[in-house]
Amino acid sequence: MCAGDITMRRLCFSTAGESHGKGLTAIIEGFIAGLPLQEEDINRELKRRQGGYGRSSRMQMEEDRAEITSGIYKGVTTGNPIAIFVSNKDWREADEVAYPRPGHADLAGAIKYGLNDIRSVIERASARETVARVAVGAVARRFLAEFGIDVHSHTISIGNVEAVMQDEVSSIDWQQVERSPLHCADARFEKEMMNAIDAARADGDTLGGIFEVIAQGVPIGLGSYTNWDRRLDGIIAQAVMSVQSIKGVGIGSGFALASVRGAQAHDAIVPNIAVDVSDRGKLPWRRLSNRAGGIEGGMSNGEPIVIRAAVKPIATLANPLPSVDLRSGEAVEAHYERSDVSVVPAAGVVAEAMISIVLAEACLEKFGGDSLKETTANYHNYLESISLWQ
Ligand SMILES: Cc1cc2nc3c(=O)[nH]c(=O)nc-3n(C[C@H](O)[C@H](O)[C@H](O)COP(=O)(O)O)c2cc1C
Fold first, then answer.
1. So what's the pLDDT on residue 26?
2. CA atoms of 155 and 167, how far apart (whole Å)
3. Residue 4: what pLDDT?
4. Using an 8 Å Cβ cutoff, are 71 and 143 in contact?
5. What is the pLDDT of residues 337-369, one digit of tens each?
6. Ligand 1 and 235: CB distance under 6 A
7. Average model confidence (pLDDT) for the chain?
8. How far is the CA of 56 from the centre of ligand 1 (A)?
9. What's the rounded mean pLDDT across residues 132-154?
């Protein structure tokens, strides 16, 4: 998602900063002019990332607030690179570490960079970095709102406690999800999920789970089948998989499609009856289901985009796994420091940000333009041009 990729990307961002450094920085390149943007748009998302049952006490200590230091004039984007800074309250020179934690970047990072103190690996590999990604995602989300696209997530499971899924994406009450300490669409499963997290914590252990991200209002035709690196499904999978602790990504029915026949796997296309003046702008077909999760042939197909991701259990254990002292080679217990016990809702918020960034770039690529006015005019022209009932 940055200059240097095989194709020159339209929208790039990069992040810098460490878990206990002064703060996190994000720089966004290639964004349009003319989009109203406030720090509050970003702060709202940063607060969502900090939430969720099972987080460490650091999340009470930090109050992540964005400072936009470039790319904005009179509350509107200018087209210049946008720079965002979020300071760390817990800023300190942290202790040296020589006992790598299984499941972390510690061992491979120390060997790769020739270190016998793992601290610098821990500091940058930490998911504190996702503060910067969520800040970038908030800018993308603000842009997507101009196209009527919104992106949400909810928790499907924590450990082996699984919420029963709603049949229709449209029936999910997103306000209930935001109220839920576990971002659960069905409050009946919350208590059991919280108990599972409490039990893991009591054992000095941790828990993962599964979340789902849903993007609604995505127009048909983002991404392309014409080359591997233009496929929207591939770009989304990479973006979500890049989030710390994500170990599986599925699109639509995902892995479940492997065990059913074609007739149960695909989404029938049927005529969209009732053609009259009020249907102007509507498309002459509809789908009976959305098992494809809104993407076919590497392109959005006009249905909601539905992505599931598996979050592994946190690798910093209060009851640590065996490890080795990198200096002496002796058997030790892995390093432990204050850590979350379960992060599924927060990981969902980070994945929302990554998917928003991918969709924002896909919109910019499809509709072009250097200002909001130009890009949205192109978007409306496209919608007009694909409607057979103009
Ligand atoms: C929002 C979020 C918060 C996280 N918090 C912690 C944490 O407190 N302690 C920890 O050991 N890992 C935490 N992780 C996971 C690690 O960052 C991740 O497992 C580690 O960097 C190794 O990367 P990998 O799991 O992708 O292989 C968190 C992940 C996310 C998405």
1. 98
2. 15
3. 45
4. no
5. 999 999 999 999 999 999 999 999 999 999 999
6. no
7. 94
8. 12
9. 98
Closest residue by CA, ligand 1 atom 6: 340
For residue range 72-84, what is the model confidence (pLDDT) as tens digits? 999 999 999 999 9
DSSP tag of 385: H
Q: H helices of 79-189, where?
A: 106-112, 119-125, 130-145, 174-179
Q: For residue 261, how many C-alpha atoms fall within 13 Å in the half-sphere facing its CB?
A: 1
Which two structure tokens, joined as six digits, stand for 186? 């069905």
Please choose from 101, 245, 249, 323 the residue to mutate so as to test ligand 1's pocket, defined by most ligand atoms within 8 A of CB: 245
pLDDT tens for each residue of 9-65:
789 999 999 999 999 999 999 999 999 999 999 999 999 999 999 998 877 788 999
H, E, C per residue of 68-87? EEECEECCEEECCCEEEEEE
User: What is the distance of C-alpha 142 from the center of its chain?
Assistant: 15
- 89-109 as b/e: b if 16+ CB within 10 A: eeeeebeebbbbbebbbbbeb
Q: Tell me the CATH class for 12-386.
A: alpha beta
Q: What is the pTM of this model?
A: 0.96
Counting every residue, how long is the chain? 390
Alpha carbon dihedral 13, 233, 108, 310, in 10-degree steps, equals: 110
Q: Report the atom number in ligand 1 closest to the C-alpha of 127.
A: 17
Would the CB of 104 count as within 6 Å of ligand 1?
yes
Residue type, 381: N
Which residues in 233-365 belong to E strands, given as ranges? 246-251, 269-271, 285-287, 295-296, 299-300, 305-311, 322-324, 331-333
Residue type, 167: D
CA of 14 to the centre of ligand 1 (A): 19
CA-proximal residue: ligand 1, atom 13 (nearest): 314
- For residue range 108-131, list pLDDT tens digits in order: 999 999 999 999 999 999 999 999
Q: Is the CB of 105 under 6 A from ligand 1?
A: yes
Q: How many other C-beta atoms are found inside a 10 Å radius of the C-beta of residue 61?
A: 11
pLDDT at 279: 61
CA 245 to centroid of ligand 1, rounded, Å? 5
From the CB of residue 120, how many other CB atoms can be counted at a distance below 10 Å?
15
